Amino acid sequence: MTPRTWVTGLGVAAPTGLGIEAYWSATLAGRSAIGRVTHFDPSPYPCRLAGQISGFEAAEHLPGRLLPQTDRMTRIALVGADWAFADAGVVPSELPDYDVGVITASHSGGFEFGQNELRALWSKGGQYVSAYQSFAWFYAVNSGQISIRGGLRGPSSVVVSDQAGGLDAVAQARRQIRKGTGMVISGAVDASICPWGWVAQLTSGRLSTSDDPERAYLPFDDRARGHVPGEGGALMVLENAGHALERGAPRVYGEIAGHASTLDPRPGADRAPTLQNAIELALKDAESAPEDISVVFADAAAVPELDRAEAEAITKVFGPRGVPVTAPKTTTGRLYSGAAPLDLAAAFLSIRDGVIPPTAGSTLSNTYEIDLVTGTARPAELRSALVLARGQGGFNSAMVVRAVDHTRL
Length: 409
Description:
Blueprint: E1 5-14, E2 17-18, H1 20-29, E3 34-36, E4 49-51, H2 72-88, E5 100-105, H3 111-123, H4 133-136, H5 141-150, E6 156-159, H6 165-179, E7 183-190, H7 195-202, E8 232-240, H8 241-247, E9 254-263, H9 275-285, E10 295-297, H10 304-318, E11 324-326, H11 339-353, E12 355-356, E13 371-372, E14 378-379, E15 384-391, E16 395-402
Parallel strand pairs: 5-6, 5-7, 10-11, 10-15, 11-13
Antiparallel strand pairs: 1-2, 1-8, 1-9, 3-4, 7-8, 9-16, 12-14, 15-16
Helix pairs in contact: 2-5, 6-11, 9-10
């Protein structure tokens, strides 16, 4: 029988809260962290709002030697990994070297670190560029630094597919567990709210130009006008079910039950987007039918044509208003590769507590036939969830998670 992959630890770092319960209580309350950018002066730019993490002091969590060699995203990821291992009741240094792998996703690498070193290069000269620039900007740096810090020598890699990457990394971790690795820490954290990163994000043409935090990011709403960027994400400990049982894991959030990814046709091609295919293939991989899914966590681009494509895909699979749909990321902003792992964490917490968080701020347009959860959190008996993510360039990813069924072991 194919080994089951359980999630036994979560490490959450979101604009709405550091740590599981701080994030979750804010999410259920629909409390937003979107506000004017403070990491730099956004006045010259057309977009000025973001979801920023406040109160994170890396020096309180990490040794001083790591600070000059890491970008902000890596510092948050290292602390998130520490929290996930602690939540799982695992001390990495006590595990055999090759028993644990690290597989993360990245949207853009260490943008702020790279910006500072490029400024030093052009304003002072090459001798002022940090040697750490050689890796601190790199997409794979979070996997590398987590691996080094924990002495983890199992399968390690990075996935780069924009916002879809967060799900694709967890899926790759699941593949490694199926091949025999006992434990993998996976997920993603992104943090590129700096002028260089901001300009790069503006090129997408998908950022909201609103200056009203309550109306800037409104997916599936007639007022939708793009998304608000954010920083953060989630790391999670994935484990072979037998491995978790053998060591007496203190908690199990649920199972990674199914996944699929697709790539849309090139722009201008006379073919439909493929998100629906990804959903159907993920359900098949999970051996689930549409009626088995209790809730959908939407990608929620807040770009009208992308919202329409997502709503149509959901409606075609589940029927009109056939399943509750939510997008709690309206309170954090879109965290790029960190967004989907954070949605996975929210899905597991929804299953744990029997409640669906609201899509704060949005009012459902009557052009969409989906059951969007708005206003307040909705109590519900939940056994499984579908998480969707799409990336710039046509990446689609869908993942099914569910409560642990001991009869499937």
